[in-house]
Amino acid sequence: xxxxxxxxxxxxxxxxxxxxxxxxxxxxxxxxxxxxxxxxxxxxxxxxxxxxxxxxxxxxxxxxxxxxxxxxxxxxxxxxxxxxxxxxxxxxxxxxxxxxxxxxxxxxxxxxxxxxxxxxxxxxxxxxxxxxxxxxxxxxxxxxx
Length: 145
Prior knowledge:
mainly alpha
C-alpha cells in the first residue's frame, strides 16, 4: 500500500491554490501529480482538512465478520477443536465455506493463541530440518566437484 504525502506538503499545495495558483500549477511546482492536487483541494474545500483519508478496509468486514461471535463461542466451549472441524461446523450451521487459515486469522485477532501439542510444538507439519536427509526424506546432496 502506498504512503501518504506529508502534512507539510499537503498544506503547501492548499496554500499555493488559496493564494491564487491553479491546482495543476501547484502540482508542477511542488512535484506531485495533478490528480493529487485536484483531489486534495476538493477535499479541503469540502471538509476544511488537508489530512489524508483512512486507508484499507474497514475492520470487522468480510464474510466471517458476522460469524465472529459463533466462532469464539465454539472455541470457548470446545478449546481443543481443530480449524477444519470448526470450518465444518460453520458450513453446517450457516452454509459458509471458508478455509481453516481464515478461521485461524480471525481467532488470532480475537486473542486466541496457536494450539500447541503435548511436546510444546505447533500441531501442524514441521519443516525438514538439518538431519532430514539422513532419515531418507531428502535425496543426498550432489557433489560439487
